[in-house]
């Protein structure tokens, strides 16, 4: 074990003109996998970049996901994981024993059986979005007309949200996850507006229960009103923003590699390749721990970088290449351990149906702009595309 303090680097936030993941991640892996970096307000945290080390961090009982703890990484006043006094019920920030009961209640709602039952509804949503796109002519922005509405309508239906409110949710979630184009005030206002709306939905379901997620969670009695509203806000953002960006980036990649269109292996490879939730799994040490031979002291913040782990050359040969035929070990696009993404079954089905149906129904689909000119989300917590112009 070493307790020497390495040189502190500036965190490599995404920048226009740079590839994603940032090339510095590979440098850090070659330097032993762990480096110290300066993030918001001069705070210094550990960056973890190798897959084995990321898994070790995400399963170590001496490392916490609770943002209320001293030393938890701060990406900004309204970015990262909200504290309990900001948004109660944000269960990805719960440690044992609080985390287990919440997860136990939610797991059945995203089981393989439940998601299989949703497949016809997801297929109808995808087809309706394509119908609307085709009706407008022979060109479209695939983000606005397809990648955003598909998961938005799916999660809205799951929660019992009227589809007519989709635009409201999309605008507020975009504000919440923007690093550079939204101010702290913008994000605070967006969060309050979403929470007010969700609380109105909860009040309606308390009086008139239906066949929706909110009604079923209310029936369990496992949540207080505030905790339920926070948990639903998390599900709404996670179910909408990450999936939308995966759909857009995946469609772009398949248009660049049409030989893989229709191959059932593309979903896992695209999830690994793009790793859109790179900055989500924030942690803090609650006691002195050793990761990859490096001493991390209690109270030091940790950022396990998902995209770095999914591009680890010791695990994935030529990791920057899109190769669905690779013998792919388990990626960590959905996290790892007790906090692994609850909605991963839903995301996989949405992506599989979206890619298959899009290219079956629009076989002449093509990019309408060079990839190097596309507006990538360098300014967001979640990586993705602002626009994806296509024609057919």
Number of strands: 11
Number of helices: 13
Report the sheet with the most strands, covering strand number, pairing sense and barrel closure.
Answer: 6 strands, mixed
In helices, the fraction of residues equals 40-55%
Mean pLDDT: 89
Shape: globular
Low-confidence stretches: none
| Estimated radius of gyration | 21 Å
The strand line-up of the biggest sheet is 1-2-3-9-6-4
Task: Give the strand content.
Answer: 5-15%
Question: How would you summarize what this structure contains?
Answer:
The chain contains 13 helices and eleven strands.
Overview of the structural elements:
By secondary structure, the chain is α+β, with helices and mostly antiparallel strands. The protein is 44% helix and 9% strand. It is built from 13 helices and 11 strands. The protein has helices spanning 24-30, 51-59, 99-106, 112-135, 142-147, 149-159, 166-177, 184-207, 213-220, 225-256, 266-274, 306-309, 344-361, and strands at 8-10, 34-38, 44-48, 63-64, 139-141, 283-285, 289-291, 294-296, 301-304, 366-367, 389-391. The strands form 3 sheets. Strands 1-2-3-9-6-4 form a 6-stranded mixed sheet. A hairpin with a 5-residue loop joins strand 2 (34-38) and strand 3 (44-48). Helix 6 (149-159) runs antiparallel to helix 10, helix 8 (184-207) packs across helix 10 and helix 10 (225-256) packs parallel to helix 13 (344-361). It is globular. The N and C termini lie far apart (58 Å).
């Amino acid at each position: 074990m070493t307790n020497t303090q390495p040189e502190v680097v500036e965190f490599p936030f995404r920048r226009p003109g740079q590839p994603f993941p940032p090339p510095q991640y590979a440098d850090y892996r070659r330097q032993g996998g762990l480096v110290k970096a300066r993030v918001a307000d001069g705070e210094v945290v550990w960056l973890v970049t190798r897959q084995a080390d990321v898994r070790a961090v995400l399963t170590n009982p001496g490392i916490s996901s609770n943002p209320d703890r001293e030393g938890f990484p701060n990406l900004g006043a309204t970015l990262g994981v909200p504290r309990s006094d900001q948004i109660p019920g944000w269960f990805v920030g719960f440690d044992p024993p609080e985390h287990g009961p919440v997860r136990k209640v939610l797991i059945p709602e995203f089981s393989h059986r439940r998601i299989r039952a949703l497949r016809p509804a997801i297929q109808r949503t995808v087809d309706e979005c394509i119908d609307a796109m085709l009706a407008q002519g022979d060109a479209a922005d695939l983000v606005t007309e397809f990648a955003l509405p598909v998961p938005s309508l799916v999660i809205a239906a799951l929660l019992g949200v009227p589809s007519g409110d989709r635009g409201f949710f999309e605008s507020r979630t975009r504000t919440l996850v923007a690093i550079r184009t939204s101010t702290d005030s913008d994000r605070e206002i967006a969060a309050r507006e979403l929470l007010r709306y969700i609380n109105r939905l909860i009040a309606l379901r308390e009086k008139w229960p239906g066949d929706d997620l909110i009604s079923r969670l209310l029936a369990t009695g496992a949540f207080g009103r505030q905790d339920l509203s926070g948990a639903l806000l998390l599900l709404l953002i996670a179910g909408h923003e990450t999936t939308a960006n995966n759909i857009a980036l995946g469609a772009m990649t398949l248009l660049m590699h049409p030989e893989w269109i229709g191959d059932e292996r593309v979903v896992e490879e695209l999830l690994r390749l793009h790793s859109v939730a790179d900055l989500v799994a924030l942690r803090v040490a609650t006691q002195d721990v050793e990761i990859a031979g490096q001493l991390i002291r209690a109270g030091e913040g940790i950022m396990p970088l998902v995209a770095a782990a999914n591009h680890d050359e010791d695990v994935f040969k030529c990791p920057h290449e899109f190769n669905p035929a690779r013998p792919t070990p388990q990626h960590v696009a959905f996290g790892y351990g007790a906090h692994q993404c609850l909605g991963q079954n839903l995301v996989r089905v949405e992506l599989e149906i979206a890619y298959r149906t899009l290219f079956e129904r629009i076989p002449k689909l093509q990019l309408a702009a060079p990839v190097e000119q596309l507006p990538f989300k360098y300014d967001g917590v979640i990586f993705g595309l602002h626009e994806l112009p296509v024609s057919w």
